[in-house]
Amino acid sequence: xxxxxxxxxxxxxxxxxxxxxxxxxxxxxxxxxxxxxxxxxxxxxxxxxxxxxxxxxxxxxxxxxxxxxxxxxxxxxxxxxxxxxxxx
Length: 88
Known about the structure:
- By secondary structure, this protein is an all-alpha fold.
- The protein is built from seven helices and no strands.
C-alpha cells in the first residue's frame, strides 16, 4: 500500500486530483506514520495547483483525519486556509 502514494506522482504532475483524493481515501485509516506523512505530502503538493478542490476534499475528510496528515497538508496553504484546517 505504501507504494501507491509514490505511484501517484504522475497523477499529481498531470493535476489529476480525482486519483489523488481516491488514494487519500484508501489510505485514510492506515496507522503507519510514513503513510500518513505521504498522504499529507500529496495533499500539500496538490493544494498550490488545485486549492479549491483540495479544500473541498479536506472539508469532508478533516473530522476523522489524523492530525499529522492535516499538519503536513497545511504547509503550503494560505494563512486563512491553514487556520481553517488546523483550528476549525
